[in-house]
Amino acid sequence: CRARCARGGPGAAHVVAAMGVSHSMNAEQMDKVLSQFEATTQAIQGIEKKVDRVNGYIRNMQAQRQLLTHQADEATDLIDNISDSLNNRSDQILDYFQRTLDSFA
């Protein structure tokens, strides 16, 4: 059969199919593949934990940014109110001085 199979004779397909099905691994190869698979699984789990930790940091930063934005808005409103109050008071003082000067004239 070797000569016929090598040339693509009638038994060639049978030999090729038998070769593809009959592959086996020894115990050392299986242990190596299994330990590499376990190491890969552990590495993926470690990456998932790190991604979860980063996502937690991002959520905390977003909450802090929202709080800071809210506090900045409140501070801006407070400064605007103080400015408005000072402008009103200065207008009142100028009106008072104007009337006082007008009364002397």
What would you say this structure looks like, in words?
The protein has 105 residues and is mostly helical. Helix content is 89%, strand content 0%. It contains three helices and no strands. The protein has helices at residues 2-6, 12-21, 27-104. The longest helix is centred in the middle third of the chain and has 78 residues, at 27-104. The model is unreliable at 2-9 (pLDDT under 50).
Topology:
Layout: H1 2-6, H2 12-21, H3 27-104
What are the salient characteristics of this protein?
105 residues, disordered N terminus, 3 helices, mainly alpha
What is the compact description of this entry?
The protein is mainly alpha-helical. 89% of the residues lie in helices and 0% in strands.
